[in-house]
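Example 3.
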Amino acid sequence: MNAPSLERKSIVKSYFSMKKHNAIVAWKKAKVMKRCYLFLLPYAIIFTAFNIVPLITSIYYSFTYYNILEPAKFNGVQNYINLFLQDDVFLIGIKNTFLIAAITGPVGYILSFVIAWFINELPSWLRAIAVVFFYAPSIAGNIYYIFSIFFRGDTYGIVNGFLIKLGIIQDPIMFLTNPEYMMPIIILVILWMSLGQGFLAFVAGLQGIDRSQYEAGMIDGVKNRWQELWYITLPNMKPMLLFGAVMAITSSFGVCNQTMALCGYPSTDYAARTVVTHLFDYGFSRFEMGYASAIATFLFVVMILCNKAIQSLLRRVGT
Amino acid sequence: MSKKKSFSVEKRKPKLLRRRVANRSRGGDLAIYLFLTIMALIMVVPLVFAISQSLKPLDELFLYPPKLFAQNPTFDNFSDLFASMTKSTVSFSRYIFNTVLITAVGTFGHVIIASMAAFVLAKYDFPGGKTFFNIAVVALMFNGYITQIPNYLVMNKLGWIDTLWSLIIPAFAAPIGLFLMKQFMEGIPNSLIEAAKVDGAREWYIFWKIVMPNVKPAWLTIIIYSVQGLWNNPANTFIYSEEKKTLVYALSQVSAGGIARTGQTAAVTVVVMIVPILTFVLSESQILETMASSGLKD
């Protein structure tokens, strides 16, 4: 009766003494390598001040009523209750954001991999030009303003002009003020700009795959490019696929600039509202910081969960 | 004779397109070329349209039916832009100056600070290093909008509201730069660093004289990303004074001017897009070399 508990006690004791030992070893190591910390220090301070501290304060303020002028008052989960049960505009924002993320995330991701895979077999001079062509929209800054001319609601708009000339429509369509057309246009524009950092990682990763693996695959009976893709290319690309997925998710949930520039802010009937524009509205127009923090915390949780889910899915690729 | 002919054909072929791989179907190749051509056109047409729009004279901008390409290109829109901008309270050159300043200072600081941190994280095994890197990877997974509101409070505490510091300093610690730099530095052979240590080199010397010259592709890449981010920074949350606003903000003001400013909007768009695209074209090969090590390992 006594023996097992004694044994357990000694295990606990040895566990703690090991912990202590490890801590001492780590401390000694840290002392020896203190110059490493000096190298890390500038980055660590700025990173903490503008990423970690804001994240934690955001979570804290999401449980308070805070309007900057008065000190924050704790009000439990009231912000979250208001958010999901009373704020109809927020629900539009969630719907739009999830719609945009569910379409532009996967389509943009797959498209950037497919294009990277296709141009991989081009000769190098042609590949270099192709990379610039496909990547330019993502880095061209506020190029999406040009779409406000494309889709302008009068006859001078390019799309309206052509449709009228072809006789498909009689009167110009108010593309950017009519809620029916807003989301499809926004999604098209975002897709157009969505070959981001993931695309570059794919192009580079495909170039880095060892050629001899393909030759070995050919001898082992790989018949066509699809088998080659599944059995050789994808397993080799796994780290890049993970990186690309992180980038795609992060950008597809953060859509706001394009909707604000094209459909106006606020847009007609809030039809182009996203979670981030809602966050701006409450944070920087109404200064309801507690409520805005609740929106931010919600978005943070969604992004992290989505990343984790996609990563565990991608780990199974090619196995 | 026939031998000679076949030789010349063989020689010509690989120059244009790479030798065919055995397990590829010709139809598949054709389909791929077709797909790529169509996609490339879709990608490029709006960019070309932006340039052509900025070169259209006034009567062509409001032509019905509209034309995609300028018939009589002029630089009127650009000169109008500078003229109307110099007449306003803040001159156009001021916006350009602000943007260039934050881009240059922010990028320079980012490269130095992120490389220093990446160097010790990649090449030294010290307590807390791995944890710190993992936290930085998590920071890749959410974007800046989430922290923007509390960031405002932090800036307020520091007294940086309405100063350019509020744009420059946070850019120093962008997680993507640290991530790419660290992954690339891991590829540098340890023997190189060990050899330097045996010769009695200090960490700073190893970092500055041995590691940094060897990771040129990586710092070019993070320069591009940093320039891209800072150059396109709308600066509309922390900055109030008109004379501290950036170029992208000026663009949004011009295009808010409505239909009368159509040509000038296109001109500003072109001015804004030229810099990131040019920097990318000039450093493409180096960037791709860096991205080859960008993978997220388990």
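The domain at 88-314 of chain A is CATH 1.10.3720.10 (MetI-like fold). The mean pLDDT of chain A is 84.
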